[in-house]
Amino acid sequence: MNGSASAPLIEVKDLGVRLNTSRGPAQAVRGVSFSLRRGETLGLVGESGCGKSVTALALMGLLPDSAVVSGSIRLEGSELVGLLDARYCKLRGNRISMIFQEPMTALNPMHTIGRQVAEPLRRHTGCATGEARKQAIALLDRVGLPDAARRVDAYPHQFSGGQRQRITIAMALACQPDVLIADEPTTALDVTIQGQILDLIADLVEERGMSMILISHDLGVIAENVQRMMVMYGGTVVESGETNAVFTRMGHPYTQGLFRARPKLGARKGTRLTTIAGTVPELADLPAGCTFADRCGIVVERCRTALPPAVDVGAGHGVRCIRTDVSMASAPRAGA
Amino acid sequence: MSVFLLRRILTLVATLFAASVIIFLVLDALPGNAAQMLMGADASPDAVRALTVKLGLDQPLTVRYLLWIKGMASGDLGNSYVYGTPVAGLIAERLVLTIPLAIMSMLITVVLALTAGIYTAANHNRFGDVGVMSLTQVGIALPNFWFAILLILLFAVKLQLLAAGGFAGWDDGIWPGIKSLLLPAISLAVVQAAILARVTRSAVLEVLREDFVRTARAKGLGKREVLWRHVLRNAMIPVMTVMGLQFANLLAGTIVIENVFYLPGLGRLIFQSIANRDLIVVRNCVMLLAAMVVIVNFVVDVLYAFIDPRIKVANL
Amino acid sequence: MSAPLTIPADAPPLTPGARPATGFWRRALRHRSFVLGAALSLLVLGSALLSLLWTPWSAYDIDIASKLRPPSAAHWLGTDVLGRDIVSLLLVGARSTIMVGVIAVGIGLTFGVCLGLIAAARKGWTEELIMRLSDFTFAFPAVLSAIMLAAVAGPGMLTSITAIGIFQIPTFVRVTRGSANAIWAREFVLAARAAGKGTFRITIEHVLPNILSILIVQATIQFALAILAEAALSYLGLGTQPPQPSWGRMLNDAQTLLFQSPMLAVYPGAAIAIAVLGLNLLGDGLRDLLDPRLARER
């Protein structure tokens, strides 16, 4: 788009988030670093509570006031951590947008959808009511809301879940943002609708040259929709790299576990789903060493002493595990 | 919308009907012979009989009830047993005090409560929130008539700024009237406002936790904009319900407060009539108050439909 | 669901790990509004009990010679227009207040809970009828029903108790029915029904015990409302009648003397406010302690 196509649009360095929960302070995210170029798509995958949504909210500057953010988030070189809310407001919905998981509750039930889609336009571009409405109709039309011109004055409860998610997408895209963060955009939807919505998002991202961060707990969704991916566990990135590279050579025992735990299409009836033993650790009392140690099949004593560093196992493919030699010898492969 | 409205109106009519029956039974049928009560136990039977006929109390119960309903429809509420003047006139001259008083105190209540409620919710768990919430806790515990007496002590006895009671009327312009209703309205409002402020606060806090608030923030709206444009309208539903219920308390409160400030309003009229055994006046006053409560709550119900777009469809 | 609790009269000593209730007391003693509310409520209850055994002076004997005395060693808060000792009047007044409150809330609780349980158990038109009736009763605030009763039966303690009691019923009906409906939808009730237990037995064995804490909280708050209503009715002369001392009546007497002895109007009002504040704080505290799910945003 512009000359500095190779310079990162977003650069996150050593991001840490400390949340105040009812059970005491919790380090929800630690040591997360990545960069995202213009037009690039990145997937964040992991179980619920692994810190992926918190990372997204940190990027949006929408964490609760009590949260403590450390490290650095830069958008085209300018620092976002510690930015005044009033200045952050000029970026949100304008240069960074977000789509949320629950389309049923993400829309204000008291306002017409047209008003809600037009709101970012009026906020950021200062265009008049009539013009904003016209653009809102065009946007709703683009995201495939049937009969947009007529239904622009309807209220959210008059739409289905899939339609509502289309509306939130229209809302997020209104100001042509540079980055779209999609937090589990299809989790709450019917399986039949999920594919349509993901295709719509993919089309729009390509059409507008946006960067996207797609958050999902579903490896399949990640595999099909993003160029690069990060696997998160216990608030840390345990594996990251090109999507193809990661799926070809899974380095971290947790990634492998996630992959084995996928329900497989065409599996024989009666085949048991593989699960990862144990449960996600409480963020309030994380172990000192590798956060996955308690559930790991190849854990050794050394794993529990310190958080393992990220090890490069290929070009741009990092794994936060000290036993990659063992784990990668038995790695499952996509399609296996 | 029309079906919704029709159902509400039917409920309203049924409620008013039930209220009138109960009031009639308690205040007309139950006491036995009102003429006897008026004249005392040692009146001569002939005189009592004559008065009974004169007041129309010799007719059967149902006829008397129907006559009353018919009278209410045509504005003729009968004559006071004691003064002999039309009840409607007696009530009307008292309402010019009671209605402005109720409206003034409701306005003060709403302004105080919404300001305090929204302020505390926006500053959740900060110093101002805790301070104002402690104040409302005390406010709820104050008997309104005691608060009224304290206001009299302060403004009339100590500072001598306002009169301790009485009503200046509306003849010399609007200001003297309002001035004499100011303390009564404030004393009625403060306690109600304390309750409503707490309701407003928790309603706003509840809505602030909703997903669409995050969506609105993600669009780039500031916290203040989100509060005014997205949160308040959603929070108004529980607030309005309580406001409707509070109106009943407020009317009951005027009865008490009018007695504190010696205001010649509906409340004083009811009291004098009880003392005078003027049951026809009591009956009509009570019916009027009950009707006002029922109608205000009906209006609140209908207003929901205007505020909340979901209601119309659900009831169509 | 914690062990059934009544409004505490006194805290048992903390013996570590004694009964499950110990956990409740440990939390309770750390809960600020609960402690303050309990202390204020105990103060009022203690005054009422004390007045049964002892008052500094008689609250009934008139002594015109020593009327309107300022506070002194003999009369700590002075005397009223009839020469009665204010402290003694306040102590005995607490008794009237608590008596009216307890009986009125008792009426409201008994009828309200029964009707609410029936509404939740029977559903259908029974529920509809009960709820419409209770909505309807909302149209008659306590003062209004007291006026109607006083017009017919004359003023008095009985009138105010009845009026306040009737006024309390619909609130209890709503609260009971709402929480009972939630219990009826729970799995263990379904299991009990599947096991062939009847409606009545389920109500007594499962529903009632599970909504008890909610009812205790509500009763505490309704008690506060009853005290306010009793004070207003006595002030108006519809409630407790002289010579029986009551706080509302004292305020009425004091109002005519505002310019002479303003403090006479302060004490009884403060007593009412303390009682109501104490019960409200106690209710809030109990709500937090008994059922965290009920805890409102504070």
Number of helices of chain B: 13
Number of helices of chain C: 10
- Computed over alpha carbons, the radius of gyration of chain B is 24 Å
Largest sheet of chain B: none
CATH architecture of chain C: Orthogonal Bundle
Beta content of chain B comes to under 5%
Instruction: Give the terminus-to-terminus CA distance of chain C.
Output: 22 Å
Task: Spell out the helices and strands of chain C N to C.
Answer: HHHHHHHHHH
Number of domains of chain B: 2
The number of domains of chain C: 1
Largest sheet of chain C: none
Give a count of the beta strands of chain C, DSSP E runs of length 2 or more: 0
Annotation, overall tally of beta strands of chain B: 0
- Secondary structure class of chain B reads mainly alpha
GO cellular component, one term (chain A): plasma membrane
Function (chain A): Involved in beta-(1-->2)glucan export. Transmembrane domains (TMD) form a pore in the inner membrane and the ATP-binding domain (NBD) is responsible for energy generation.
Family (chain A): Belongs to the ABC transporter superfamily.
Protein name (chain A): ABC transporter ATP-binding protein
Attribute tags:
heterotrimer; A: 336 residues; alpha/beta; four-stranded antiparallel sheet; B: 316 residues; mainly alpha; MetI-like fold; 2 domains; dipeptide transmembrane transporter activity (chain B); transmembrane helix (chain B); MetI-like_sf (chain B); BPD_transp_1_N (chain B); transport (chain B)
Please characterize this protein's 3D structure:
The complex is a heterotrimer of chains A (336), B (316) and C (298). Chain A is an alpha/beta fold. Chain A has helices at 52-60, 85-91, 113-124, 129-142, 148-151, 161-173, 191-208, 219-225, 243-248, 253-260, 324-327, and strands at residues 10-21, 24-36, 41-45, 68-75, 78-79, 96-99, 179-183, 211-216, 228-233, 236-242, 311-314, 317-319. Chain A is globular and about 65 Å long. By secondary structure, chain B is mainly alpha-helical. Chain B folds into two domains: 31-76, no CATH class; 88-314, MetI-like fold (Orthogonal Bundle). Chain B has 13 helices and no strands. Chain B has helices at 2-29, 34-39, 45-54, 61-74, 87-122, 127-141, 144-158, 174-208, 211-218, 223-260, 266-276, 279-307, 309-315. The model of chain B has no long low-confidence stretch (mean pLDDT 87). With 298 residues, chain C is mostly helical. Chain C has one domain: Orthogonal Bundle (MetI-like fold), CATH 1.10.3720.10. Chain C contains ten helices and no strands. Chain A binds chain B through residues 60, 62, 85-86, 89-94, 97-98, 100, 102, 105-111, 119-120, 123-124, 155, 157-158, 168, 171-172, and chain B through 210-212, 214-223, 230, 233-234, 307-310, 313.
